[in-house]
Amino acid sequence: MGPVINRQDRSSSGQRERAAVLGAGSWGTALAILLAKKGLPVRMWSIEGEVVREINEEKTNTSYLPGVVVPENISVSGSIEETLRDATVLVMSVPSHVFREVLKKTLPYLNRSHLVVNAAKGLEESSLKRLSEVFSEEAGGERYNNFVALSGPSHAEEVSREIPTAVVAAGAKRASCERLQDIFMCPSFRVYTNPDIVGVELSGALKNVIAICTGVTDGLGLGDNTKAALMTRGLAEISRLGTALGANPLTFAGLAGVGDLIVTCTSMHSRNRRFGIEVGKGSSVEEALKKVRMVVEGYRTTGAAFRLAQKTGITMPIVEQAYRVLYEAGNTVEAVTSLMTRGKKHEMEEVVETAYPDW
């Protein structure tokens, strides 16, 4: 394990930063450890009584990050009010399907100076909204200026062990993104900024759907060629939807796009890929979810992405087949066959029509 970094980070006003982390799963715990090693006092919140007890008393979180030591300057509480007391930066690391519910409970203790960092990757199932849109709707436009989405290729298991990682911070205000850089950056954790929160959030959510699909092909015993095709064409689908919704196409070629897609589709740290592997081997959705034992964001996101594609009129054949398998008990082999036997297409259809009209 690398050295502890003792720099006492301060806000632009000179105030020492103090962190509150909502959610004590693997990613919330990893980010809490990162901040604590930088010298910030960190309070975490969890609804799991045994997790609260174990972190406070034993300084471990074996349910989510086995083998990792939790620093002494981290404490955990079952009270949101207590967790946010004196905090200057709030890290939201709760599953996307409870994001709005937890946010509502948090708002009475949230002031206009809090930097709000969302580390969850997903879409709200009922509204199909990105989580920044949910935040703006509940917290108001003025607080939205302090909202930043943190995304990119970053397995909790590696971040907590100080393995070099690079991520992206996206938000409406550059100053808020740069404040996040000051708080989080260290020799093992590099943060870039990006003004394209639409593209960053959609990349983070939809790559989980593609990771499930690559896992399915692994479970079926297919090869690297298949996985590479799914990743590449999956990125094309994400880009197509994202640009239609106002994202910058360059975002999908960056850390939040292709970077996160690569790490999630290829690593056994990825719970979405592990879930897909179980489905590919023949497990039911319910059985596969139980085997993974942690939240599989891509499962819910698949349903939301399928409906969002229908709503916007964007063609997303991989997402469609994922939906058929996960929500309509479709056959995995037939899903692969359906994708492989679609009608002939240009690889860059929109570009060909505009840049090569005589081709």
List keywords for this structure.
N-(1-d-carboxylethyl)-l-norvaline Dehydrogenase, domain 2, 359 residues, single chain, two-stranded antiparallel ribbon, Rossmann fold, eight-stranded mixed beta sheet, globular, alpha/beta
The amount of beta strand, in percent, is 5-15%
Helical coverage, percent range: 40-55%
CATH class of the largest domain: Alpha Beta
Q: Total number of β-strand segments?
A: 10
How many helices does DSSP assign? Answer: 17
Going by CATH, the architecture of the largest domain would be: 3-Layer(aba) Sandwich
What summary fits the major beta sheet?
8 strands, mixed
Mean of residue pLDDT values: 94
Question: Gap between N and C termini, in Å?
Answer: 56 Å
Structural class from helices and strands? alpha/beta
Instruction: Trace the largest sheet across and list its strands.
Output: 5-2-1-6-7-8-9-10
Rg over alpha carbons: 20 Å
The ordered H/E elements are: EHEHEEEHEHEHHEHEHEHHHHHHHHH
What are the low-pLDDT stretches, counting only 5+ consecutive residues below 50? 1-8
The general outline is: globular
CATH-assigned fold name of the largest domain: Rossmann fold
Tally of individual domains: 2
Please name the fourth-level CATH homologous superfamily of the largest domain: NAD(P)-binding Rossmann-like Domain
